[in-house]
Amino acid sequence: MTARRLRPAVGLALTAAGAVSWALALAFLDHAARAGEKASSAVDDEGIPGDRWLSLWVHDLRWAAIIVVVCGLALTVRGSGWRKHAALVAGGLVLLVADGVFTSMRATGWSAAAGALGVASAVAAAVATRRPDAKAEDPQRHLVGYGIVAACCAPLLLTNAQSEAGRFIPAGMTAGLGIVQVLLVLAAISCAVSAMPHVPRAAVPLAAGFAAVLGTAGALAAGNTDVVFAILLGGPLVVAVLALTARPRSARSYLALAAIVAGYPFVLLVVSFTTVEPMAGALALSGDSYSADGIAAVPAGLLAGAVAGLLTVWTRSSRRPAAPVQTNRA
User: Fold this and answer.
1) Is residue 330 part of a domain?
2) Which of 37, 93, 164, 281 is deepest in the core (most CB within 10 A)?
3) Comparing C-alpha atoms, which of 177, 179, 180 is closest to residue 158?
4) Residue 328 lies in a domain
5) At 195, is the secondary structure helix, strand, or coil?
6) Which positions, given as ranges, span the membrane (predicted)?
7) Which of 38-77 are b and which e, b meaning 16 or more Cβ less than 10 Å from the residue's Cβ?
8) Total domains in the fold of the chain
9) What global pTM score does this model have?
10) How many C-beta atoms lie closer than 10 Å to residue 226's C-beta?
11) Any domain includes 322
12) Could you tell me the residue range of the domain that residue 136 belongs to?
């Protein structure tokens, strides 16, 4: 079966899995994280560094699940014009606002999960049922941008893993962490290969390898700071997304890919601190404040991935076949 025929089914599966993950994290993990923070404050000389460390970690998990939803919709929705991307961005923003509203209401339990899932379903239906653009479809050029965003964010859920607070981490947190990281890897690879005539042979082993490593690292994140080194896989994952859609054909291309791998940690470090102020506003919507000892890493990956994705799409769309040279005949 060709990749284009698989794309809608994969997109629907990612959308559903991301929506369920977001709803469950919103309804159960957020409340459990706040309970863990209160319990840690009663322990002398121990506990979580920073009052909002667990809340920031769950915040990252919820935003990562929303990114999975948007990537799934990008695979599902037909067309490739600007209206499609505007609808996807608008749908993602609606979910981010809904995330803040639900969190500020401190909604918990299955009723809250059902409400969040209903909102996600309504947003997905509104985006998926829009009329496709009349413009000819060229998904490869555009979907690679969504794949880069997912690849940049996939390893970042590990940044708040701290061994001294392992016993305060909510039950199900690390399992959810591993699941969402696997979903981000699958979203990244799926966006990369969705427009290819056939699924490249390297796509399946790459997806399985990255998913296995990051999924296992997420499941072991409680009390194990060594898994933070898995963050360095973000650079190679971005390179895999790019290489699956357009293999390097020159020394300059190979140098550019090497620069991505080497520069990825430094770029994320800079972007993480530059997103502190915007994230303060997002946390204020949730009724929280920013912790000096914790950084919400996924928004930084989202910003870095969006810039890298837009640049990639722009450079590839600017390529035009050389015009034939006309000669004057005598």
Assistant:
1) no
2) 37
3) 177
4) no
5) coil
6) 61-79, 86-104, 110-131, 143-162, 168-195, 202-221, 227-246, 253-274, 294-314
7) eebeeeeeebbebbbbbbbbbbbbbbbbbbbbbbbbbbbb
8) 1
9) 0.85
10) 11
11) no
12) 3-317
